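$ ./design --mode recover --in tokens.txt
reading tokens...
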């Protein structure tokens, strides 16, 4: 077998069998693509490709004259054809018909263009960058996760990991004195802290509005029993206060954890479920205010408190961070009546300004965003439902959907504690008229701010239409017929309601139908057109809103009862269900408005 046919048997172009030997600088014939360099034949660089070996020339000439192909279907290469350095395996070309190879010169496979090589190189580089980016993101994720501190508060946190529906987040300011420079702010022996500045942050279900309600640390309230997780995994029930005490004792006293503060707020607000908590301390104020580049605040009057907070600022606008930011939040002795209520106004101004800066300045700056994320995760203690960087990011995205103009700040309505002498009043109690209205608005997800005009107009129109349901005559109590079903979270609610209706309201024709087929979010009263006067009478008794009335389309029989289903908004027999449709004037401030502290 000649060199040509031996090369083609392995599907290698014979010309490709001539390769450069870097040691000698000559081209050498390599008969097998897997073999080493040949020592039998070589030629100087630049020489022409040799023709067939001795003894093969007559056969090659004959094939050239007659057009006969070799056994592999390739013609012999002549001595005038240029060599191609390096070996490349070739796929034998198909012939014009029947899959037979064609005679004549075989077409070479084109080399990749320089452009394609560049694209391949760029693609490979991008792949490395993407892998490096994923590794970097994973490293950041681990870093931020490692920063976070979580506490298992059990069922005190009702949110789990879902971010659907209305969100109620308790932001607890811990006044623990640990950390550099913090012992100057009072009790040096305070190593666990108390619930100092506390906000109930409510985010509406449709994410159009949010409200931060400040709860004074000196508010007198009763602290309930609190199941608390212990280091060994067991649960210890810490007894409640038994009588009214300061709200700030809901955390840190007798081993109470943030779950105790959450349970206290739930009881204080008449049952508002708290989804999550976040707790920050003095050090968090310093690091977070520095991470955003300082927080803009303003004063209508100068403050010089050399004895307590050490804050010294002239009137006007300022940017505070670090120790100065903490002094701004802690200061009360430099204010008008040196009260915690005045200090709360400064804290609200500070927080509103920080939210503005985060939305307007930080989100577009990767450097600031990293600094804030690092500082925030180091500063925060949270419940397990939001105890990872990804979960916190998901929560932040939900909060970020709310427009600044629809975020409001207010203090829960309070009044001076009447049980204390006028000259020594240091605590407050809930305002019995205004506070329940605020809590009802939160519970019913009613906005405290002006939302989009179109949405507001639509709600107003709907309210007017519903209000007509309550216009008209009322039946006598003895004429009201109603079946009561319990779809609420209160056990035996239907029976309690029947007892109240029959014994105190004179509705003798009422029947307990026990549990409803399923739980109901809202209380509803379904009635026929000819029962409208009965429905209005029952709505008056129970304080049902117009939205609870569900009129039918066909008249009922003379003895047929209406259907009342008690929902989750049911608070007890005789307790009105009607929630306010407009916020009482308690001095709320919107986050997009710059308000100077008095």
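writing sequence...
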């Amino acid at each position: 077998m000649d060199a040509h046919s031996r090369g083609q048997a392995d599907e290698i172009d014979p010309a490709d069998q001539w390769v450069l030997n870097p040691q000698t600088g000559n081209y050498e014939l390599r008969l097998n693509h897997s073999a080493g360099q040949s020592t039998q034949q070589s030629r100087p660089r630049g020489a022409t490709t040799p023709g067939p070996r001795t003894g093969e020339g007559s056969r090659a000439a004959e094939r050239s004259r007659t057009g006969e192909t070799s056994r592999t279907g390739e013609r012999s290469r002549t001595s005038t054809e240029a060599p191609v350095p390096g070996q490349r395996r070739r796929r034998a070309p198909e012939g014009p018909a029947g899959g037979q190879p064609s005679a004549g010169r075989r077409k070479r496979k084109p080399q990749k263009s320089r452009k394609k090589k560049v694209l391949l190189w760029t693609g490979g580089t991008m792949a490395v960058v993407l892998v490096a980016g994923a590794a970097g993101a994973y490293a950041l994720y681990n870093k931020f996760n490692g920063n976070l501190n979580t506490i298992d508060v059990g069922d005190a946190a009702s949110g789990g990991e879902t971010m659907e529906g209305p969100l109620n987040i308790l932001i607890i300011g811990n006044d623990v004195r640990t950390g550099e420079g913090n012992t100057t702010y009072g009790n040096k022996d305070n190593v666990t802290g108390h619930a100092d500045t506390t906000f109930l942050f409510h985010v509406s279900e449709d994410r159009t509005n949010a409200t931060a309600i400040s709860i004074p640390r000196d508010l007198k309230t009763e602290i309930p029993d609190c199941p608390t997780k212990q280091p060994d995994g067991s649960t210890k029930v810490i007894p409640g206060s038994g009588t009214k005490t300061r709200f700030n004792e809901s955390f840190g006293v007798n081993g109470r954890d943030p779950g105790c503060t959450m349970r206290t707020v739930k009881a204080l607000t008449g049952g508002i479920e708290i989804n999550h908590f976040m707790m920050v301390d003095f050090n968090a104020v310093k690091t977070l205010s520095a991470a955003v580049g300082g927080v803009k605040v303003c004063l209508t009057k100068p403050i010089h408190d050399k004895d307590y907070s050490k804050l010294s600022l002239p009137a006007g606008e300022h940017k505070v961070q670090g120790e100065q930011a903490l002094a701004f939040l802690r200061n009360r002795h430099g204010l008008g009546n040196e009260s915690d209520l005045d200090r709360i106004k400064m804290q609200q101004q500070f927080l509103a300004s920080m939210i503005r800066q985060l939305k307007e300045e930080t989100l577009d700056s990767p450097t600031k965003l990293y600094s804030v994320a690092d500082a925030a995760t180091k500063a925060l203690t949270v419940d397990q439902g939001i105890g990872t960087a990804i979960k916190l990011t998901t929560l932040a995205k939900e909060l970020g959907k709310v427009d600044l103009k629809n975020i409001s700040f207010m203090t829960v309505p309070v009044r001076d504690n009447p049980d204390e002498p006028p000259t020594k009043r240091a605590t407050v109690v809930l305002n019995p008229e205004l506070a329940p209205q605020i809590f009802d608005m939160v519970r019913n997800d009613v906005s405290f701010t002006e939302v989009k005009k179109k949405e507001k107009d639509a709600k107003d129109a709907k309210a007017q239409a519903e209000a007509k349901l309550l216009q008209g005559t009322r039946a006598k109590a003895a004429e009201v017929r109603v079946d009561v079903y319990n779809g609420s979270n209160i056990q035996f609610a239907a029976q309690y309601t029947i007892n109240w209706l029959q014994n105190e309201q004179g509705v003798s024709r009422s029947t307990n139908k026990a549990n409803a087929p399923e739980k109901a979010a809202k209380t509803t009263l379904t009635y026929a057109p000819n029962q409208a006067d009965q429905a209005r009478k029952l709505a008056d008794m129970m304080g049902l809103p117009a939205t609870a009335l569900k009129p039918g389309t066909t008249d009922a029989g003379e003895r047929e009862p209406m259907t009342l289903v008690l929902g989750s908004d049911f608070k007890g027999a005789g307790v009105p269900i009607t929630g306010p449709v407009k916020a009482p004037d308690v001095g709320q401030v919107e986050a997009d408005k710059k308000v100077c502290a008095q």
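exit 0
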